[in-house]
Design brief:
mainly alpha; ABC transporter involved in vitamin B12 uptake, BtuC; 72% helix; 0% strand; globular
């Protein structure tokens, strides 16, 4: 039992739970300041989300709606995690996710391709953008944060321009894939019936879980994973040991970008949403992935849980009384929790010091 309490995984879990509880508590205080009478009902609605509905089928349907948005968030979290384990902060995930959106939608609507080609195109597009950032880092010593931010906006406006060819004539939105090319939609394999006939629940959800397991195996159980982590810890030492550090930097960001691109396909190939060709901001999914990765203690399985939680309370904001509180109140609470994620290491340090003092 003492070994479990002192283990890094257990301390990471406790630190993350502290962040969540503090975030919900601070959010509740904000609700009390706005309107004390409905504060408890509001915070309860955010926490309950799909449990707000009394009937089982309705709960399953809206539980599925939460999972649909969780799948791409998991992929963005894994993208951040993979690069961070190699000593890189891939803030360009938002742009790589955007590249995946552009490639998957264009292949679906303009080229009329089936879903597996659209998914592959999204992976390749995200990987290419990640490779560009990796090459700038490896050969020009350009910080990946700077190149990632610049590539985010370059990619956004490029995607806007490309997808104008497949948008509705009198609307800024692209055509609905479900109406134009049904074979580009991700298959359901019966999952839609399991979740209250929610047609947007697809194989994206189990695929995201599989990717999380694969990432964990690559990083912890393979030679290339060892070399990538060694490069991240000390690229000069890795070079001295015979590891090709520049190659590994490029590979890590390419894989990271490919995972983010796949996340975009996991969402947009369900047909749940269309892209707005006048978008002036990169998708938030890429930035939310940063918070999810750190809240999950930079563990692939932890990111599955943290991604679901963040999406759960975000969707839960839809059940708050809009006549009293604004619809963005759940986003505010999510933001507080995200901010507190930066203190995970702080809480872990306190626990370790407390354990040492007790000893």
């Amino acid at each position: 039992m003492k070994k479990v309490l002192k283990s890094d995984g257990f301390q990471s879990l406790i630190a993350s739970l502290i962040c969540v509880i503090l975030g919900l508590f601070i959010g509740y205080i904000v609700l009390l300041i706005i309107n004390p009478e409905g504060a408890f009902e509001a915070i309860l609605a955010i926490i309950k989300n799909f449990l707000f509905y009394p009937s089982g089928p309705a709960r399953m349907k809206y539980f599925g709606a939460t999972l649909v948005k969780t799948a791409p968030l998991v992929m963005c979290s894994l993208s951040i995690l993979f690069a961070y384990k190699v000593g890189l902060f891939n803030i360009g995930v938002a742009g790589q996710y955007c590249a995946g959106i552009g490639a998957s939608i264009y292949c679906a609507l303009a080229l009329n391709l089936p879903w597996y080609f659209c998914l592959l195109a999204a992976v390749v597009a995200g990987g290419i953008l990640g490779t560009a950032s990796g090459m700038l880092k490896a050969y020009c010593n350009v910080n990946e944060v700077i190149s990632g931010i610049m590539l985010n906006w370059i990619c956004l406006y490029t995607v806007n321009g490309v997808l104008k060819n497949v948008k509705e004539p009198s609307s800024p939105y692209t055509y609905n894939i479900a109406n134009k090319n049904t074979k580009a939609l991700l298959p359901n394999l019966g999952l839609d019936k399991l979740f209250g006939n929610n047609k947007y629940v697809t194989i994206a959800i189990p695929l995201a879980i599989v990717v999380a397991i694969v990432v964990m195996i690559i990083l912890d159980k393979t030679k290339i994973g060892y070399e990538l982590k060694a490069t991240g810890l000390n690229k000069n030492a890795a070079k001295y040991a015979g590891i090709k550090e520049k190659k590994n930097i490029i590979i890590s960001l390419a894989i990271s970008g490919g995972v983010a691109g796949a996340g975009a396909a996991f969402y947009y190939l369900t047909g749940v949403e269309q892209w707005m060709c006048t978008s002036s901001a990169v998708p938030n999914m890429g930035f939310n992935g940063i918070a999810s990765a750190f809240l999950g203690a930079l563990n692939p399985i932890g990111t599955l849980i943290s991604s679901f939680f963040i999406q759960h309370i975000t969707n839960g904001g839809g059940y708050v009384d809009k006549t009293v509180y604004c619809s963005q109140i759940s986003d505010l609470i999510s933001s507080i929790i995200i901010y507190l994620c930066g203190f995970v290491l702080f809480f872990k340090t306190i626990m370790k010091k407390a354990g040492g003092a007790k000893k």
